[in-house]
Amino acid sequence: MHHFFVEPSEIVSGTVHITGENYRHLRTVLRAELGEHILISDGTGTDYVCELTEITEGELLLRICFRERMHELPAEIHLFQGLPKSDKLELIVQKAVELGAFRIVPLRTQNAVVRLDEKRAGAKVMRWQGIAEAAAKQSKRSIIPEVAAPMDFREAMELAADFDCRMIPYENAEGMTALLSVLRDLAQPWDSQRAGKKRIAVFIGPEGGFSRGEIEAALAHGVQPVSLGRRILRTETAAITTLSLLMTALERSYEDGQRGIG
Fold first, then answer.
1. What is the average per-residue pLDDT within 5-22?
2. pLDDT of residue 194
3. In terms of CB atoms within 10 Å, which of 126, 188, 203, 212 comes out highest?
4. pLDDT over 60 (residue 225)
């Protein structure tokens, strides 16, 4: 089933109005036909299975058949990723979106080899955002996660200061106890009627890792250092591993909440 994102204003009285680039893609590239079912997301977390009922010049009309089940995690994961070399961030963005990240924030850090000026950064963010959109469609996300403009480590600390959970995988962290404790807390049954979505910050260093000063700054801001095991992981592996663990805990939280366990 094809998947498209629209603005909430394009959904009126049970009908989705498809125009512009979405119209061109559906009509001329995919050659959509009357009666075809299409998954529509409004970008705010709601998905609809729709039927194509009318084709006119410049507009397609889709009837909403039913509302899809929620495809988002019961928490917002903000990935603060140290800028890696080459095109590694493209892979990280793609996999982060697939694993449920809400936002990806590239970080300028002391050990990062990559240095982006404002012009290059703008072009890169546009490309990363396009990758995020494609990954969101492929993985049936209900939103398109934002890829933010690169920011300094200090700015990231301030941005995440009031988040519910903040963690930084660190090679010198002792044992797995801290990580397992975080995962247990996040896996508690989620009640959507009583609790809003928690915000989780994950800080991943570049190839050279975070500097000692950055680790000390993170600790001073109350960020929890955690271990991902006894091996040194590449930056892209560390990001994917951490997000996979968080996704598993949060999916368990949602499922148990739906079953009324707790």
1. 94
2. 65
3. 203
4. yes
Domain covering 2-67, topology: Ribosomal Protein L25; Chain P (2.40.240)
The DSSP string of 113-143 is -----HHHHHHHHHHHHHHHHHHHHHTT-SS
Q: Topology of 75-259 in CATH?
A: Alpha/beta knot (3.40.1280)
E strand spans, 68-108 = 75-82, 103-108
Tokens standing for residue 159: 């941005």
Q: So where are the chain's domains?
A: 2-67, 75-259
Helix (H, G, I), strand (E, B) or coil at 40: strand
Q: Name the strands in the sheet holding 15-18, side by side, starting at the edge strand that comes first in the sequence.
A: 2-5, 37-41, 47-56, 59-67, 15-18, 11-12
Q: Tell which wins on pLDDT, 196 or 253.
A: 253
Q: What is the model's pTM?
A: 0.88
- 158 to 23, 105, 145, 161: CA distances (angstroms): 41, 13, 21, 5
Calpha distance 149→155 (Å, rounded)? 12
CA pair distance 74, 30, nearest whole angstrom: 33
* Beta strands 75-82 and 59-67, pairing class: unpaired
